[in-house]
Amino acid sequence: MPIKIPDQLPASDVLRHENIFVMSESRASSQEIRPLKVLILNLMPKKIETETQFLRLLSNSPLQVDIELLRIDNRPSKNTPTEHLDNFYRQFEMVKERNFDGLIITGAPLGLVQFEDVIYWEHLQTIMNWANKHVTSTLYVCWAAQAGLKLLYDLPKRTRKEKLSGVYQHDIHDPFHALLRGFDDSFLAPHSRYADFSADYLEQNTDLDILATSEVAGVYLAATKDKRNVFVTGHPEYDSHTLHNEYVRDLGEGLEPAIPLNYYPDNNPDNKPCASWRSHGHLLFANWLNYCVYQQTPYNLDQFSEANFTKDE
What we know:
Blueprint: E1 3-4, H1 10-17, E2 22-23, H2 25-28, E3 36-41, H3 47-58, E4 65-70, H4 82-88, E5 89-90, E6 100-105, H5 121-134, E7 135-141, H6 143-153, E8 159-172, E9 186-195, H7 199-205, E10 209-214, E11 218-223, E12 229-232, H8 242-252, H9 278-294
Helix pairs in contact: 1-3
C-alpha cells in the first residue's frame, strides 16, 4: 500500500517519477481500511528536501500511511517558501487533541548549540511529552535523538571535538529484535553530527536496548523496551548527494570541514558519491512501521492507552 499525501506536495511528483506508489486523498478515502496516522515534525531548514527523503522511506511498506507535516513554530523560513509552509504544515495547537500511530522528529543543524539556547526548546519538550500520551511510537533522528535522551533520561549534551561526517560500518547486537529483522550482520549508514553517543555511556545511564553500533560512530540504533521510543543517531534518509551538499556548504562558510569519510570514491571530493546505505534505510523504516507502530497501535486511536503496549512480541 502507498503513502497518502496531498497531490500538490512537491514530493508527490518526485516520488511518482521514481515509480513510488503515492495515493491521492480522494482514492485513499474510498478504501475500507484504517491507514496509519504518522506525524513528521520537520526541524530541518530545507523542509521540502527533508520531507521528500522521509516520505521515500515511509513509502516502502505494505501499509497505507497517512502523513501530516508539523512545524515547530511560525517563524519565517530562509530555505522554504512561506506558501509551502502555510499549505502543507500544521502548528502543534492544531493536532494536540488528537492521537497518532507514529511520530518522526527529524534532525536539526543545532549540534553546537546548548539545549537551553535553542529558541524552541521548551516547545519541543512540550511536543515530546505530549507524544508519550498521544503517539504509539516516536522515532528520534540525529539531533532529535540527543534531545529525546535529554528529555527521557536527563542526559546532558555530549559534543564531539570534531564533526562526525561520512558513511560508517555498523554491527547489529540483537538479530532477533523486531527493528533489525532482515538486517545483515553489518551494514553502512551515514552520519553528520557533533553529538556523541557512545555505547558505554548509554548502557550506564539508560535502560535502552542498544541495537546497532559502530567502532567509530558509536551507537546508531537504540530503543526503549516497549519500542515506543526509537533513537537513530545517523541519517538513513539522506540522498546520495546530501553529505556532499553539506560539505560544500561548510567550505563556503569557511569552516574547513574534513572530507566525509568513506563517502567519495577514493575519498576524492571530485568523484561522484554513491549511496551505499539505501537498502538498510528502507528496511529500518519498514520495520519501525510494522513492529513498533502497526503491531502495537489500537485500531481506534480514540482508545489510545499505554496499557496497549508490551515489551516483547
